[in-house]
Prior knowledge:
- The complex is a heterodimer of chains A (about 525) and B (about 350).
- Chain A has three domains: about 15-105, no CATH class; about 135-210, no CATH class; about 235-385 and about 425-515, no CATH class.
- In chain A, helix 10 (about 190-200) packs across helix 11, helix 12 runs antiparallel to helix 13 (about 300-320) and helix 12 (about 270-290) packs across helix 19.
- In chain A, a hairpin with a 6-residue loop joins strand 3 and strand 4 (about 90).
- Chain A is mainly α.
- In chain A, strands 4-3-2-1-5 form a five-stranded antiparallel sheet. Chain A has a two-stranded antiparallel sheet with strand order 6-7.
- Chain A is about 65% helix and about 5% strand.
- Chain A has helices at about 1-15, 25-30, 35-45, 50-60, 100-115, 120-135, 140-150, 155-170, 175-185, 190-200, 215-260, 270-290, 300-320, 330-350, 380-400, 405-415, 415-420, 425-450, 455-470, 475-500, 500-515, and strands at about 65, 70-75, 80, 90, 95, 370, 375-380.
- Chain B has one domain (about 10-360).
- Chain B is mostly helical.
- In chain B, strand 2 and strand 3 (about 195) form a beta hairpin.
- A two-stranded antiparallel ribbon of chain B has the order 1-4.
- Chain B has helices spanning about 10-30, 40-65, 75-90, 105-110, 125-150, 155-175, 200-225, 225-235, 240-245, 250-275, 285-300, 305-325, 330-340, 345-360, and strands spanning about 185, 190, 195, 275-280.
- The radius of gyration of chain B is 21 Å and the shape is globular.
- Helix content of chain B is about 70%, strand content about 0%.
- Chain B: This is Urea ABC transporter permease subunit UrtC.
Amino acid sequence: MKKLLVLIWLLAHSLGAMAAIDAALLAPLAGDDPDARIEAVNRIAALASDDAVKLLHALQNDALYAAPDGKVYIVEDDQAFDPASGQKVAMPDGIDGISVNNRLRGAVEDALSGLKLLSENRTERLAAASELQKSASAAQAPLINKALEKETDPEIKAMLQLVAATANLVSPDAALRLAAVKALATSSNASLKPVLLGMLEKNPDGSYAEPEETVRVEVVRTLSDLNARLARTEFVGNLFYGVSLGSVLLLAALGLAITFGLMGIINMAHGELLMIGAYTTYLCQLVFRNYFPLALDAYLLAALPAAFIVTATVGIVLERTVIRWLYGRPLETLLATWGISLMLMQLVRTIFGAQNVEVANPSWMSGGVTVMGSLVLSYNRIVIIFFALFVVAAVWAILNKTRLGLFVRAVTQNRRMADCVGVSTGRVDMMTFGLGSGIAGLGGVALSQLGNVGPDLGQGYIIDSFMVVVLGGVGQLAGTVIAAFGLGELNKFLEPSVGAVIAKITILVFIIIFIQKRPQGLFALKGRSVE
Amino acid sequence: MSSSLFSRPAWIGIVVCTLLLALLPVLNLAFAPGHSLHVSTYTVALVGKFMCYAMAALALDLVWGYTGILSLGHGLFFALGGYAHGMYLMRAIGRDGVYQSHLPDFMVFLDWKEYPWYWAFTDNFWYCMALVVLVPGVLAFVFGYFAFRSRIKGVYFSIITQAMTFAFMLLFFRNDTGFGGNNGFTDFKRILGFTIPDAATKATLYLVTLLLLLGSLLLCRWIVSSKLGRVLQAVRDSESRLMFIGYNPLWFKLFVWTLSAVLCGIAGALYVPQVGIINPSEMSPANSIEMVIWAAVGGRGSLLGPIIGAFSVNGLKSWFTAAFPDLWLFALGLLFILVTLFMPQGILGLVKKLRKDREAA
């Protein structure tokens, strides 16, 4: 408490040491000229003193009054104060409230938020600086300059330098403008572009909006720098979103790579297994919300094993009841599993309703990291990228390092030989299908964190999943990974120029053409489905 | 399979069914509603729709049942034929649309001033009829040429046809592609000057559909029982052996694939004026797969089977969706599974088996 008091005293003292508000500054406030009033507000703000803050607050709260002689007073509870000195004064006769129109109110708000630049609190200063980055006006230049002088934090200082430069772009002083344009050469703020372009435009009378030739040359240079930087940011953004989409495709397709790729089953119900995984996540969230509200954020971790077990069980049941009668007849598995998919969809619709259910990101997955200025990488996408890589690694390990994986590969390569040496092929089939389905469930958990969870969730991914597996080459884990990330990147780099739908169509056409060249996909492998 | 293909009872059945079907619109027109012999307009429209479906299933059977190529993209050809005809019907509305412009309402909505180039001449009925044949035909030919040339077959072919259909659906769903977006073409008023809602016009459309269905059945029968048909069945049973003998399966497959797409397009074109709407959901992957089910349920590789299948599955659907709307997908799903597991030859196969059992007994 004592410390705080000392701090306040020091603060008050240091501010108080500055000159009180000059009456000449105050006079325009009572006048009629709107531009002069706004300029006065900004100049008062630039004083950055306690009195200035008090005065602006008074103006904001309609507590500022003007006497007939043009002198300005703050009136609180029928007590008048002299804003210049802060002293109580006798209430002058005939004083009237100063009217504040919307434009002035906006200027006051900007000035007050700008004053936060001088706050002792670093976060508050940072927030104020980034707010100003979006909207700095020339009028705020004095305040910004003042803050810049005092600022010691390098991050905020760098930010403020850009803000000051932005504000100075419209300064009447050509030298200031030139310096500002030069300073902005390192900025990556896309909103500067129209301002800079505006400076290069011609007025109706043929003269340039920016009269100085040297400044214009510098503007052109800064613009090209800015464009290059924005293009780089966009490139990195596309790269990231491409990887993110690729990881989603990978999670959706990985289970299919096992059931279709290794076993030769066209599992049209694969999408519905994804959906079941997503609904399991939803149920886990409900359970945690109702019974362990304190540990709600952990529901996702519980959902992973739950979704795996549920979907693997569903898969095993399907394999035992329907699919095992159809081995070696892929077209028939297609029809039967399509029937299964219809039934599963209708089942979910009957139980949970046709509407989407709400699955929220746990708090540790919301938000994101900001890189390169405007680019934000959200945590949920980053987590899913790593999760996808983890699942791939796990599948690789299961197929290559475990006894089950050995059997799976053996049955895939030569079923009869495997049978002869005592591998229980029926059991391996069941386990393999269960594994593929379980991985679909894990994919469903991830999908529930990115998009809507509803009965149609699976339908949206089934064609993409097949495309990934076909492109990657049947039975090839590496091919599936490369195809998923490749398609993800291709999609995200096409999207900005041609739009989402055309990008998707282009990719489908690309795959059709690619299959022309390599009918077996990226990597060919002999498996059950090969003649 | 015998060279006569259809047995004597089958021929009799075809003739009797054709006559019965032809009678429906006559009964609808000749007797007033309420009369015991009157057939409701709804029933006539429903049967007309089923006949279009039957034609699509027949076309699918030609490639799947006889040549062993499973297409999951026939919904696309069906819809393209439908859109080609729909274009004509759309322009035949004239200025009777909501905005009373010479442009269709959705184009007025997009603020277009002129018809795009691909709509040129579509005010001519015969040009549109040529499009009905050419658009699915050319697309199927080009797609098939590339696919068959690189020997894409089996499930790969199925998946790629599905992807193609999906891509077209996305394209047609867009408003700015000039196909009416989500709503497609609807609100048709007249065809060749005749008012579409008129009972006589509807009866004529119905009878044209019946004749074309019968015609395509006979055409398909002629093809599969000719030498060409033998080659097609050889493609289905052992394509590599056929190649070793010296045939190039490419052109045989391409011919039957293109023909099938054209037939499917014609079915779509007949469907549109009778149902009154064509929209991109006809291209949804689910629709194409349902066509496969019609063929599978009736019995593939028998020409009559798909027609029976289309009628029975859709009849079942009409009844089910009215009586138990929530259960239809369960029933359809179960039908898929049961047919693939227990009735690989479909209804027709079951009938044959029963007859054989009786003869043996």
